[in-house]
Amino acid sequence: MVKRSKLSQVLASILVNSIYQMINYPIMLVNTLLAPFSILVIIILISHGGLINVGIEGALIMTTITAGIGLQGDLSHLKNDMKLQDMVVSSPTSSLIYVIGMGISELIYAAPVIILLAVMAAIFIHPTLMQTAVLAAVMGITFVFSIVLGYLLSTISSDVVQSWGFSGIISVLLSTLPPVYYPISYIPMPFQLLAYLSPTTYAAEIVQNAIGFIHLTPTNLVIDWIVIVGICAALIVIAYKKAQWRES
To answer: 71 with 167: CB under 8 angstroms?
Structure first.
């Protein structure tokens, strides 16, 4: 009975935050599609197709990051404008179930883009089962990282407009400026150190190494995994301890 109740709470979040919007506002799907594909097209044109493999992987990472960070704006809207979170807080629903449901809804919302990019990856990259598993693991970690970050920021945001500002800045810092669509070797050496401030740089390196575009030493590969998993775990701990759900 408890499991069924939790499932219904998750399904309610999905219906409210993704299915409803996808059916009533399909233009938002076009907006979701434009961001990763516009950069992908530019990268392909500039590199004359040489970076198409890396570009597709980068677009997948960007899509998961953007979807996760987008949770911040949706949570802020539901909390500050619709007052939905007040009703959820007064119900038996826990913050974990609420965030899980909203997180899955963001993933479903981004599913059409992910599926299209996955088809392109199958056509142009021909990934092996191991390469697919590595990409899926990296996407999963970056998605959880961005979901938790979006949730944290939503708890301190007082207005949806402010949330949009945060989302735009963070998306650029995590998925546009870092070498996600291209290898870090394309960045002049003094600025490579700045690129490593972003966790998505490490995620991109893991994927680029998996498809054979770059070759990392075993030590560097382990360090990359430790960084992205460590940052994700640290954010989860911070969210658990600091994010305010119910007033004391």
So the answer is: no
pLDDT in tens, 214-236: 999 999 999 999 999 999 999 98
Nearest residue to 232 (alpha-carbon basis) of 196, 188, 187, 202: 202
- 59 or 169: which leads in pLDDT: 59
Q: Give yes or no for a contact between 145 and 231, defined as CB atoms under 8 angstroms apart.
A: yes
pTM: 0.85
More confident residue, 167 or 131: 131
- Please write down the HEC assignment for all residues of 32-91: HHHHHHHHHHHHHHHCCCCCHHHHHHHHHHHHHHHHHHHHHHHHHHHHHHCCHHHHHHCC
Inter-residue contact 70 to 168 (CB < 8 Å): no
Q: How confident is the model at residue 13 (pLDDT cuts 50, 70, 90)?
A: low
Amino acid identity for residue 112 in this structure: P
The answer to whether the Cα torsion of 122, 127, 129, 133 is positive or negative is negative
Handedness of CA 84, 90, 95, 100 (dihedral sign): negative
Coil, strand or helix at 94: coil
Phi-psi region of 188 (alpha: psi -120 to 50; beta: other; left: phi over 0): beta
Q: What distance lies between CA 130 and its chain's CA centroid?
A: 22
Whole-number Å distance between alpha carbons of 241 and 236: 9
- Token look-up 């198409």 returns 52
CA dihedral over 163, 172, 110, 231, signed as positive or negative: negative
Per the listing, tokens 């009975």 go with 1
**CA nearest 71: which of 36, 97, 106?**
106
HSE-CB of 183 using CA atoms within 13 angstroms: 15
In the block, residue with structure tokens 């945060």: 166
